Amino acid sequence: MGGFRVTGTARDTDWQAWQESWDRQQEWYLPDREERFRVMLDMVEAFAGPEPRVLDLACGTGSITDRLLRRFPKATSTGVDLDPALLAIARGSFAGDERVTFVTADLKDPGWADRLPHDSYDAVLTATALHWLHSEPLAALYGQLGGLVRDGGVFMNADHMPDTDTPRINAAERARRHAVMDGARAGGALDWADWWALAAKDPVLAGPTAERFRIYGEHADGDTPSVRWHADTLRAAGFGEARAVWSSPSDSLVLAVK
Fold first, then answer.
1. Whose C-alpha in 120, 125, 161, 243 is 20 to 30 A from the C-alpha of 153?
2. Does the model's pTM come out above 0.90?
3. 62 by DSSP, 3-state: which?
4. Within 13 Å and on the Cβ side, how many CA atoms surround 192?
């Protein structure tokens, strides 16, 4: 993997190279990933202006935080996640940046929000993450977010939200997407398993990677409910309005306003 320096110490690890590698791996699955981030930040600006206080929920390596701060240099971000390997990359990438705080917490723990540095946020953002949760704990999480987002603030979730009423459309989209992915794979793109195999061999990330697989297992076992389910559940959680503000053939970005 080009760009990596194997030194065995966190101080000398090329965290930016790991960030970029994670982005490329995610883009193999989500070629329109940057477009959803752009729309997400457009809506943050529309509701909260250029200096928002943001909660990056299930933040991973800090992909949302990275784009947030590049677009809004006066923004602040709290990233929360349980994955020790992805959090190691996030903390290494943003070390010394006083605008960013990272918190280790399990979103299925009813008391996870007690660890946050703030009681409320202008925007809570998450992408390609909450499908790790089943519908019941996700609904409970949405209820907690109803108390974290300030009045007039927003929550946004970009994820796979299929419509089971359109099976032929779903099948055609999936077939085409996988054909494109197979072509990229033949050209050397890393998939999920490849990326984690590299992390497991890195002297600094090997330990955190082993721990993350003890926590999560190999793959998500959660649910992928429809846009309608997300919108209805968010309104029941105390948000005044909720609907999709962006969609691709496979994914959607749901926005809820407090």
1. 161
2. yes
3. coil
4. 7
